[in-house]
Records
---
Amino acid sequence: MDFSAIKFQIMFMIQRSQKPMVLTASKLLPVNIAQFGDIVQKSYSFYLVLKNRF
């Protein structure tokens, strides 16, 4: 086994996990995971209202 490659991959994952993950909406607005979940939940609720209405 090549432990140096595994060590490099683990160090890379640790380094990447130090920064919070941020999505961008149309390359303009940063959206965090909580906001994204809220948007998806509200969109799905709106979809269900329209589906049941029409």
---
Amino acid sequence: MAERNRGLDFLAEKYKNPPLHTTPEVDKVVIRKETINRRKNKEFVKSEQEGPLLPEKLSSDPASRIEEYLNYLKESLDHNNPRRQEKLARFKTMLYDKNVIKPDEIPESYFTNQQRIAREQGHGDVEITDDMRQQSAEIIITDQKSSLDNWTDYLSSPDATYPDWLKYWSMRSILGMGEYDKQKKAFTKRAKGTVKPFPDLDREALAYVLDALEKKYAGRQVNDLQQEEND
């Protein structure tokens, strides 16, 4: 439990702008839990049984609210949940809406570059028609969705035996990850309007990173690791 709490504190420290525990998705889950607890308490009192009531107001502690959110995701995507496919599809749609490029966001420089490539390949000056723009947008969006699905499907599968906080950190990292800078030996920040898919899923490389982070973090203070993550 202590290790799990350190992981929750790490997420609270890392994602401060905006604070993760105050985001709409976390608020929604917390309110949902409080509503369910009130309903269960009414049923319990009506049954005239004896025993403690469920909390009708959850803690405002950042780590507690984040834990409630992660628990909700875990339960929703659990393979024993009969509504898993429905909830997984809804979760993916939410990711698409927030992270996949929209047709009108594709920069004009992309089409200019396509014209340049056509000239270099000996096709002359190619006119970019509306149909070509639409086809290009469909391909770009499909590729981005597919690359996101690879991560979502794996991290929500029984094969990904990592703590929930590490899975969340992995997904957030991928969403903000751009191209690899060979000189700096680090990934750049993913720019808004990029047409490229999200990074490929490399299970072996991911396992190496997550295992190292989990072991390193197990005996460390939150601010120690947070400082290294920002370096």
---
Amino acid sequence: MRFACTFAAAYQSSAHPISMTSPASAAPGWHRFITQLSMVVRLVLWILICLCLSRGLLVWLNRPAMDGATTDGEYFEAMLVGLRFDGRIAAFLVTPSVILSALCLRFDLTKATRRTTLAAGFLFTILWLLFGTITLGYFREYHNQFDPHVLGVVYDDFGAVVQTIWKTYPVVRGILVLLALMVFLCWLMRRWLVLAFPRSSPKSPRTLPGKIAWTLGILFVLVVGLRGAVSGRPVQEKDAGCTRDQVLNRCVVNPFFALHYAIGAHRRLLDQGGLDQYLEEKGLMAAFREFAGTDDLKTVDDVFLRKAAGPSGPAPQHIFVVLLESYDGWTMLPQHAAWDIAPNMLRLGAEGGRVTRFVAASRSTMTSLSSVISGLADAGVITNERSRPGQPPLATSIAAQMNGLGFETHFFYSGLGTWQRVEDFAKEQGFKHTHMGPDMPNSPGSNEWGVTDRDLYQHIERTIRPDVPSFSVIMTASNHRPYSIDLAKEGCEVKVPATGYPTFAEGNATLQMLGHHKYSDKCVGEFVQRMDAKAPGCFFALTADHWGRAFPGPRPTMLEQALVPLVLWQKGRVFPDLSGVGGSHYDLGATIIELAAPQGAPYHAIGRNLLGTNPPLHAQSRLWDIGPDSIVAMGGEGRMETLDGRTLTQPPADLPQQLRKYNLVHGLSWWRLIKGNVFPE
């Protein structure tokens, strides 16, 4: 309202100055105003056109991944809703110029207004080109625009990321092309803004209604732009879900808002709002009791307290939990057997036990690894940053509990211990011995992310003493960009099967990627064989940190995206039938501890024993819930499919119970990690 009054007063002063001048003296003020306002209008058009072009390109490049039934009307709807988000960006950037343009009616602020408008144009053009380019690559890898996971780069090994990009992409050529585009687009934008437009300027309003109409008209356009809506509530993130096609919906918001929403979601998880995504604080004590199954609780850790049923088979002397970098579960499905890139995992699963419905805790290495080490769910709070030297391990920490059972605990990682402070975190959570890449041989094929899988496994074989019971968590690195293994030398070259994959080129998997998957499988098979020969009585739990985000076709089903393997193997052990079992990284702690803990021994875990008499039927993580017949995308997206990829029109009957379980596991983990071992007051 204050702006409207000032604006109208400026009109009044411009048309009828206090000093005794002719009416013609109003012309300079009006000319300044209309000239600068025309630059603002052209900048708005520039912003809207650029954002629409980048959205159109994103949709075009990802059209193979979109539903073939998506109609032209839905594409139009997506572009139209996206325009509402674009309008908010444009309005935000030009608001200072609009205010200065209004002041030009009274004062000669032509230079300041012009510079402000040009600066906004340069800033937008440069950021649009940068964000748009990054979005294209990020979407191809992660099937989404910027989301909370993108902020993991803050904690990642920046040097390794840069080296990987350098080796994987033509960086110098890309930078030169990007700089050339920036220069050209900034030049083009400037030429567009300084055009003589309009050819015939509208006349200055002489009457009060005319002045009011101009004022209200400009205010109306500005407010509509800032809100992204003419009436009702402002446009919100949820409005992006405007079509039936989830991939198309992810293209709706522009990169600026995608990053804005990602930062907001990340910040909410780290403050009190993070709990609200799962549970209400006023009902938190009831949630603690519900999860624990008892009212006798003195600390939060009591909620996770269990009693061991006692070993059901030969107690292992050595236990190895191996997280294979980016090992895809779809490669072990019967319909993809023609690739033959998981023969060792399939063989070990047939000889031992295999959970066919198994998911990783999260979608990135450190968030999943942190869950395995800490024994808590990935609640989005960067678990490895929640502990510091001198603090006791979490009660659910698997290493600390295995120490108490008499096992020598080891953590092996192919890369640097400083990566996401993984070595410090492992020590803080109870591992007595940590072994990082620099401690290991460095043969050809090693890269900035770590030594080869073979180097890692051979170091483990030299380290583990057969006569000393041990528990080890192992994280590999070879199946990762820049994919530096000599596949021909290793006999791991891969060809596209003769039938079944006519759209292979439209997917984001490459033969180089799939060959490294086969190398990972080959090395872990060799390791199991050699380690068991050296130290009989070994138990192996072989899984992955996350799915590899690559598929030999444009439209993987939700199940093909979600699955990672879990193969359990010990020579001489008879495994129960695991065909109906569903599990996740959350269940590894209980499963491993129950192998060795005597009957009645207390321990802490959030999951259930996959080898017990009452194993879970659902595989559940922060991202997914996989039941016997269906899969649901958790965390608010709401996608649902049958296990063979058909869209569900009605949610599974037990979805409310699974959502409650999901909220309990993640909400209570959030509280323990953020608030500590005390109940709310």
